[in-house]
Amino acid sequence: MEKASEIRIVFVTTGNYESALQISKILVTEKIAACCSIIQNVTSVFGWQEAIQERTECMLIIKTTKDCLNNLEIRVKELHSDEVPEIISISLDSASESYAQWVRQSVGD
User: Fold this and answer.
1) Number of domains in the chain
2) What string of pLDDT tens digits covers the 109 residues of the chain?
3) pTM of the model
């Protein structure tokens, strides 16, 4: 394992699979993300407009680099139907050397 502090995992929820797939394809095509994994049927409970909301969503797990985060956020906001989309980034401590290299190469870093 190698230090991979420049690699980021970004979580984005969407209201349906079609939206998740569209966002994923655009991010990968534009080399903003190396890979997007879609998990279906995630139940989210959250406060919105002074009420408790419950929604079945898809969770995108996006693999990218720190340098791509700003462009990723801009594109997700452009493509997403929510007024305030969930866009959460976490850094990696380590990853296999070959995987970290693949992520960096995939986004053009």
Assistant:
1) 1
2) 878 889 999 999 999 999 999 999 999 999 999 999 999 999 999 998 999 999 999 999 999 999 999 999 999 999 999 999 999 999 999 999 999 999 999 997 5
3) 0.94
